Amino acid sequence: TSAPLKVAVTGAAGQIGYSLLFRLASGALAGDRPIQLQLLEIEPALKALEGVVMELDDCAFPTLAGVEIGSDPEKIFDGVNLALLVGARPRGPGMERGDLLSANGAIFTAQGKALNKVAADDVRIGVTGNPANTNALIAMTNAPDIPDERFSALTRLDHNRAISQLAAKTGAKVTDITNMTIWGNHSATQYPDLFNAKVNGQNAAEVVNDQEWLESNFIPTVAKRGAAIIEARGSSSAASAASATIDAARDWLFGSPEGDWVSMAVKSNGEYGVAEGLISSFPVTTKDGDWKIVEGLEVSDFSRAKIDASVAELADERKAVTELGLI
Ligand code: NAX
């Protein structure tokens, strides 16, 4: 029997947390390996979080080794092997973009510093809270002793949405779809790429053979799915975001499937012309807790323009948080 995997979740009393914690505890991340949950919330949400912990207790999950809750990141992140940074400040009424970036900047600078100080040497940090790419950049920059490759932002939900849309269009099973890529920012500018994706091993764009659908239906449906869910459900995607957070962490720690890749927003070293240092989504393979950007994929003029637009938005966000002194 191995030591429990110590997993921190921030924003644990929130919507995503309510789905994420139960799946983590039931083995969706690490199978039979026991999990110790370290849950961070702001002070006013701790009472609600206590209620969630009561429910976790009541599930009597065999793989849940223990739960600790609190509002001090230096206590909660102590010795964690994986930190899932879900909690973030949503945009409130009358809040400007700059206000949103500062509010989140305060959260992710503090959490980056705390992780730097107390996390386990092998820590991996996945950022789900929005604006995810830039929050990851802020945390990474504020954790100078943690290798930059240990930080990533979540674009796996977008990736899964793209797979689901393509499966529905082609009548294929989701398991027949491989090599999907989300490029760029986790925002409406993201670019889901069908030109490198495959349906039963065949080029997805050729199988679909419908540029009009690709441009006017597929891309906007994937990119604006979050808004469509708010419209339908009355609140933002939570269970699917939790599921994607687990998919991303599981593949990161335990490896992506042979012959396939996944989408993760990770630090660019200039691959595919993405400005160095930005946390941008790429096709990556993962193995033993490390990721590697898949190189040499074909990027058409159409794809180039879409990627450039999303990366330009990321560069703008970086400029804004630099001016705010957050990085
Ligand atoms: P909720 O508002 O339900 O929960 C957020 C929780 O974070 C709250 O309980 C709040 O008290 C807590 N929190 C705030 N500041 C904190 C801090 N400094 N330390 C610890 N906890 C803190 O939001 P929820 O629906 O769970 O969404 C969480 C985040 O995920 C949001 O930023 C949301 O925009 C983002 N999303 C990201 C997605 C992605 O694919 N990357 C998709 C889903 C989701 O929209």
UniProtKB/TrEMBL annotation:
Domain of life: Bacteria
Alphabetized GO MF terms: L-malate dehydrogenase (NAD+) activity
Binding site for NAD(+): 11-17, 104, 111, 128-130
Coiled coil: none
Chain's role: Catalyzes the reversible oxidation of malate to oxaloacetate.
PANTHER family referenced in this protein's UniProt entry, alphabetically: MALATE DEHYDROGENASE
NCBIfam families: MalateDH-SF1, PRK05442.1
Name of this protein: Malate dehydrogenase
Organism: Nocardioides malaquae
Upper classification of the organism: Bacteria, Bacillati, Actinomycetota, Actinomycetes, Propionibacteriales
